[in-house]
Specification:
With 438 residues, the chain is mostly helical. The chain contains 18 helices and no strands.
Length: 438
């Protein structure tokens, strides 16, 4: 018998959510309490008393509801005499009722039957064996299909398999992990050898595969949209009647290529995009060269203005991600490249030089913003890792805790304002300072 049952854990978890706040420190404290409760959930022995449950939570959450503690303590007690009488009444209602009762997942009922008449437990033994085999088989299939996928169809099939594996795991009651039906296994050869740790590992593995499926599925729509945009842009380029229209088509091609480049290479869609990018970039260079060779300086200036306008529009409403700042910088660089093709002898040389000075200044500003965004994100990620480590392994020594919190505060203060990381860094900074002052 576990020291804390599921019903009592659920009552305490609900009250814990009511007591804890939304800030990072409160979440850390709630994680500590939840970890203690889960430890009781894994321990076997006499049920935890009201005093033990209260000692578990009040040192961190003194406002924890005493009513909820008492309710959890009552729910944590083993079934009384009334429950036994109730099951006895059901037992005598008929053979079907008998089989149903003795196959319930309660060791106090099953163990005596397993010792004296194990054949009566045949339905649940068959179910456990079936679900264990199904969980292992479908989990392996899902792993192969998702992690070694070569197409979208593999991902879809892997998604179905991981759902089947999850369903089989849900049908395996935790109580049976330490229970071995020898009579049945001697006759039919059981395959389950699960421990609690292996059961949790299988669940975590299922969750990882499910997350991978989610990532893979989300990567395909951007791939399909970018390919569609490229096809339309190529048609517009071929049908263009003047240089300005061709420059517009080239801008659309570059935007679609940038979208393809942003797809994660850890996904199947990203790998497909990388293969296709070789040809798309080759076409882009060919189109760009054709327009440049036209020798029309006015067209080059108009094209540069279009790239500059697109870059200016994308720059609005900062802060932006590092990837977006990089995309904006590429647009400014494309505008600069076109202006630099205009020679001194060309009639619009002075206009081109004026624009060139402005665009290079803008490019420098964007590159500075990109560098600040990148460094701030790296700093925030480092701070989050330290926070997660502090949550997972909270030091028992208060001086050490204060030191680690101060290190996190110092790190968060280096996040630059005007970046996407700054608001979250400020929120974490406030929470850390509040924790320091407690």
């Amino acid at each position: 018998m576990y020291r804390l049952n599921k019903r009592a854990l659920q009552i305490l978890r609900t009250e814990l959510e009511n007591c804890s706040g939304d800030d990072t420190v409160s979440k850390i404290e709630a994680e500590i309490i939840l970890k203690r409760l889960k430890e009781l959930r894994r321990q076997q022995g006499s049920p935890a008393t009201l005093e033990e449950l209260r000692d578990t939570v009040v040192d961190i959450f003194p406002q924890f509801s005493d009513k909820a503690l008492k309710q959890a303590a009552r729910a944590n007690q083993p079934p009384g005499i009334f429950s036994k009488i109730k099951w006895a009444a059901i037992f005598v209602t008929g053979t079907a009722g008998v089989l149903w009762v003795i196959n319930l997942p309660y060791p106090m009922i099953r163990l005596p039957i397993a010792k004296n008449a194990p054949i009566l437990l045949l339905p649940s033994f068959i179910s456990m064996d079936h679900n264990y085999r199904g969980a292992i088989k479908t989990l392996e299939q899902a792993d192969q299909l998702v992690n070694k996928a070569t197409s979208k169809a593999d991902i879809q099939l892997g998604e179905n398999k991981v759902k089947q594996a999850q369903n089989h795991l849900d049908q395996l009651p935790v109580w049976f992990l330490g229970y071995y039906p020898r009579a049945y296994c001697n006759l039919f050869g059981c395959t389950w050898k699960f421990t609690v740790d292996e059961f949790e590992t299988a669940r975590r593995r299922t969750a990882r595969i499910d997350a991978k499926v989610f990532q893979e599925k989300n990567a395909f729509p951007p791939l399909e949209e970018a390919q569609k945009a490229l096809k339309i842009a190529k048609q517009e380029y071929e049908q263009a009647k003047n240089g300005a229209d061709k420059e517009q088509a080239i801008t659309s091609i570059q935007t679609a290529i940038d979208a393809l480049s942003e797809i994660s290479t850890q996904t199947i869609a990203g790998k497909i995009a990388q293969k296709k990018l070789v040809g798309y970039k080759r076409d882009f260079r060919k189109f760009s060269t054709n327009v440049a060779d036209s020798g029309q300086t006015s067209t080059l200036i108009e094209a540069a203005k279009m790239f500059g306008m697109q870059a200016a529009q994308l720059s609005q409403n900062p802060p932006h991600s590092a990837q977006k700042w990089q995309q904006i910088a590429q647009l400014w660089q494309e505008a600069i490249n076109r202006l630099q093709r205009i020679q001194v002898r060309d009639p619009n040389y002075l206009e081109a030089q004026q624009l060139l000075v402005q665009y290079k200044t803008n490019l420098g500003i964007i590159q500075t913003r990109y560098q600040a965004e990148r460094e701030s994100q790296q700093t925030l990620q480092q701070a989050n890792r330290q926070i997660q480590r502090l949550i997972s392994y909270p030091p028992s020594d208060s001086n050490r805790l204060q030191g680690e919190l101060q290190g996190i505060i110092n790190l968060l203060r280096t996040v630059k304002s005007g970046t996407t990381a700054y608001p979250q860094a400020q929120e974490l900074l406030v929470s850390a300072q509040k924790r320091m002052n407690q």
